[in-house]
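Co-fold these.
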Amino acid sequence: MSWLNLFKADRKGSASLAKERLQVVVAHRRSNRGDHPAYFPKLQKDLLRVLRKYVEVSDDAVQMDIERDGDLEVLELNITLPEQQARN
Amino acid sequence: MARIIVVTSGKGGVGKTTTAASFAAGLARAGHKTVVIDFDVGLRNLDLIMGCERRVVYDFVNVISKEANLKQALIRDKRVENLYILAASQTRDKDALTDDGVARVLEDLSADFDYIVCDSPAGIERGALMAMHFADEALIVTNPEVSSVRDSDRVLGMLEARTKRAANDEDPVKQHLVLTRYASSRVGKGEMLSVEDVTDILAIPLLGVIPESEAVLNASNAGSPVILEQDSSAGLAYDDMVARFLGEDRPMRFLEDKKGLFGRMFGRRV
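Predicted complex below.
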C-alpha cells in the first residue's frame, strides 16, 4: 500500500484531480436522469394536457424529478406558468 | 432522406468548425452528397475554414427569409466533389433562425443530400438549440480539459431533452464523442485527462481522437479542411473518424506518446 501508492499518486499528476472533480459535477446531473421511472414521459404529457385545459403553457413548462434519500422517494414537480397568465 | 448530424460542444474554441469542415469533406470524399451548414448567425467562420469566404453571396438566413433559394445560396466546394457549404449570415440578429424556416430548409436539402452537417455555435442559446433540434446524430467535440468536459455533459443533457426526437418520443439522438487537441505526451505525464478518463465521465461511444497538431492551424490559415492534409496526424485521425462513422472498423491511432518506454520513464520528471 505505502510506497507503491505514493509512487502512483505522484505519477498521476493533475489529471487525476481533474477527473475526480469532473466526476462530482457530472454525476450530479446524471443522477437527475437516466434512472427516471418509465412512466415519466407519459405522466409529463398527461400533466401538460390537463394544464392546457386552463392555461396556455409551453412544451417545457412541466419539469419533473425524482429525489431519492434512502427509502424515501420524492416526486418533484415544477410547473412554469406564462407571465400574463400567472397574474390572473 | 438525408441523415442530419449536429457538431456541437457547448464550449467555444474546442474545434467544432474544424471538425464539421473535415467531417463533411470526409463524407463527401467517400462519395456521399453532403452539405455543411453554419448555424453561427452573426459570427460566421465555416466559410473561412472551408476557404470559400469570397464566394458567399447569399446565406442561410437569406434562404429562410426567401430572399434567395437554395440553389443560389449553396456554395460548391472546389476541391471535393459532392460537397456544398451553406454560410451563416454575418449581420442579422439571431432570431432570424425560425423553427419553421430551419425545418423547411432542412427538409428541402433532405431531398437532395445524403448527409446534412450542422455546425453549431458555442453556448446553449437559441442558435445552438436550433442546430441540434432536428439532428439524428451528434458529434460532441470535447477537449481533454475540465470546462470542456463539463460543458459537453450539459450538451448531452440537452440532446436528450430538447431535440425534436426527444419531443416526439422517437429514438434518441445518437451521440458520438470526438476528443480533440489530444496531447499524448501530456497524458503520459499525467497532466492531461486521458481518453479513458473522458469516456468514463461522459459515458458515450468514442468516434475519434484528434491529436494536437500544427496542421490544424496551417489548414485553417489556408482555408482548407485539415482532413485533406493526409500527411498530418490530425488529417489522418479525421479520416479514421469518418471511416468509423460510415461503419468501418479502424483502431484508434496517435494515443501513444511517441517516446518509447525509456523516454517515458526518464522524460517524465523533466
